């Protein structure tokens, strides 16, 4: 059985640079091996994007990082402290159907010690006008925005967002990414999963997941250099498909 270790020891050398360290972690669901002996670090105070094809294990990785799930083998160490070390937006956030948006935020805020300005939490994700709406009357995008607001309560040192902008319109997508970059200025680390490679190119650090493995990791520039490609789309294609393409898309592999 794998281990997940939480520590708020700021004095360990790793804590200075990594908010999460994973060593040789594997995850299986019954006979299905989703991740096999992967090791990685998540940099502190930076935005890390997990990219990979459908079913490659991004959500599984996000759940292991948050502690929602535990690895079958290996060890994950979290270097984050505070009352709420990790905030999490699940891929499909669900709420008490009969509660309003305002009541939902107030409910989660009440679990924390400090005072929370519920209206400010809603304004942060542009949901002020929906404050009195029941959560079962929200669109998918609004439900996601509410989930983001909940994940940010208590200013966790690490915020993990599983497809934060899926289903959002372009204006709200831009707004959410502005909120995300603001978090690192407040010394919060962000991990997000996304299929949007143009957005992933703006992240500080990438984990490229494919077929149970992390096939490339580093800054977008490092991933491009690693795969000898010009664009992140080509880097993704090369890392994931194991072939080299030019930035114009023609196949250069044998
Ligand atoms: N609870 C579970 N039981 C069995 N198999 C699971 C379970 N959760 C995930 N899987 C399998 O693990 C693999 C990875 O799933 P995961 O949701 O992590 O992928 P993903 O990269 O997030 O996919 P997507 O981009 O489609 O959201 C898939 O083959 C999936 O079917």
UniProtKB/TrEMBL annotation:
All copies of domain ABC transporter, residue ranges: 20-236
GO MF term set: ATP binding; ATP hydrolysis activity
A Pfam family hit: ABC_tran
SUPFAM superfamilies, alphabetized: P-loop containing nucleoside triphosphate hydrolases (SSF52540)
Keyword list, A-Z: ATP-binding, Nucleotide-binding, Transport
Domain of life from the UniProt record: Archaea
InterPro entries: AAA+_ATPase (IPR003593), ABC_transporter-like_ATP-bd (IPR003439), ABC_transporter-like_CS (IPR017871), ABC_Transporter_VariousFunc (IPR051782), P-loop_NTPase (IPR027417)
PANTHER family (alphabetical): ABC TRANSPORTER ATP-BINDING PROTEIN ALBC-RELATED
Protein name: ABC-type transport system ATP-binding protein (Probable substrate copper)
Native source organism of the sequence: Halobacterium hubeiense
Name of encoding gene: nosF3
